C-alpha cells in the first residue's frame, strides 16, 4: 500500500496536523463521546482547506469509485471513495486522529466485553485490515444538492471495523446550503430511539460511534446501537469528507 501524500498539498502539512489535533481537550471530547456517542472538534480545518478538498470532487484521478445513492437505496446524493495515496491533508488527519480515538475505542470494548483491542498507531491497525483482506481505502467525499439526503446507516466494510469515525463539514451552512443537518440516532433496549441533530459550521468535525457504544446501567455497561445520516438539503450544495479508519474488502 502506498500511503505517501499525493501532489495535492494545501498549506497544512502532516506535522502541523498532528499538533492541531493534539491541542484539543481530548478528556472533554472523550466525555462527550462516552455520554452522547458524538463530539464536535470545532474548526479542525480552515475555510481554504475545506474549499481545496471540495474542489477535488470532479477530479476522478483522486478516487477509486463513484456511488450514486439512489441506485442502492442509500438516499439521494452521491459520493466518491478516495484512492491510495490519500491527499496529504486527509492522510495526515487520519494518522493524527486515530491514536486519540483508539484510546476511547479500547475503553469502550473493555466495557462491552469485546476482546478486540486497537494498536496505538494507525499504520499498525491498517496492517491488520490488509492481512484480513481489507485493502481498499475508505475516506470519502460526499456531495449533496437540493432534495438530497442520506438514510440512517452504519459504515461497516468487513470483519475489522474501527468503532469511531469522523465527518468534516466542508461547506458553510446558510451560505453554501440550507438544511442538510448531520443526524445521529441511538437505540437503547426497550426504549424509543434518541435523535441528536449535530450543529456544525464549515471546518467543524464530528467524531461519532459507527455501530455500538457502551452505556452504564444499574447492572454494569450494556451496548446501544447507533446510526447516522443527513437530513434533506433544501438549497445550495453541501460537501462533507468522511474519515473512516478501517479499510474495506
From TrEMBL:
UniProt keyword Oxidoreductase, yes or no? yes
Query: Which named protein is this?
Result: Fe2OG dioxygenase domain-containing protein
Q: Which domain of life is it from?
A: Bacteria
Any Pfam family:
Oxygenase-NA
- According to the entry, every stretch annotated as the Fe2OG dioxygenase domain falls at 135-248
Query: Which protein family is named in the record?
Result: Belongs to the iron/ascorbate-dependent oxidoreductase family.
Signal peptide feature range: none
Q: Name one GO molecular function term.
A: oxidoreductase activity
Q: Which Gene3D superfamilies does this entry report, sorted A to Z?
A: q2cbj1_9rhob like domain
- Key words, A-Z: Iron, Metal-binding, Oxidoreductase
Amino acid at each position: 500500500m502506498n500511503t505517501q501524500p499525493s501532489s495535492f498539498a494545501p498549506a497544512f502539512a502532516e506535522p502541523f496536523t498532528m499538533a492541531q489535533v493534539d491541542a484539543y481537550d481530548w478528556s472533554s471530547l472523550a466525555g462527550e463521546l462516552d455520554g452522547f456517542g458524538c463530539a464536535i472538534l470545532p474548526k479542525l480545518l480552515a475555510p481554504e482547506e475545506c474549499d481545496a478538498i471540495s474542489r477535488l470532487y470532479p477530479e476522478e484521478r483522486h478516487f477509486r469509485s463513484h456511488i450514486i445513492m439512489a441506485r442502492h437505496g442509500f438516499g439521494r446524493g452521491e459520493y466518491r471513495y478516495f484512492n491510495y495515496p490519500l491527499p496529504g491533508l486527509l492522510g495526515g488527519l487520519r494518522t493524527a486522529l486515530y491514536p486519540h480515538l483508539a484510546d476511547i475505542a479500547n475503553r469502550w470494548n473493555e466495557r462491552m466485553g469485546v476482546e478486540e483491542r486497537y494498536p496505538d498507531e494507525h499504520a499498525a491497525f491498517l496492517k491488520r485490515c490488509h492481512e484480513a483482506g481489507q485493502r481498499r481505502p475508505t475516506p470519502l467525499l460526499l456531495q449533496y444538492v437540493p432534495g438530497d439526503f442520506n438514510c440512517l446507516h452504519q459504515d461497516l466494510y468487513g470483519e475489522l471495523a474501527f468503532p469511531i469515525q469522523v465527518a468534516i463539514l466542508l461547506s458553510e451552512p446558510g451560505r453554501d446550503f440550507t438544511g442538510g443537518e448531520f443526524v445521529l440516532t441511538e437505540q437503547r433496549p426497550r426504549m424509543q430511539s434518541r435523535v441528536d441533530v449535530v450543529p456544525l459550521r464549515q471546518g467543524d468535525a464530528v467524531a461519532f460511534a459507527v455501530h455500538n457504544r457502551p452505556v452504564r446501567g444499574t447492572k454494569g455497561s450494556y451496548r446501544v446501537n447507533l446510526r447516522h445520516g443527513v437530513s434533506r438539503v433544501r438549497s445550495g450544495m453541501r460537501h462533507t469528507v468522511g474519515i473512516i479508519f478501517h479499510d474495506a474488502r
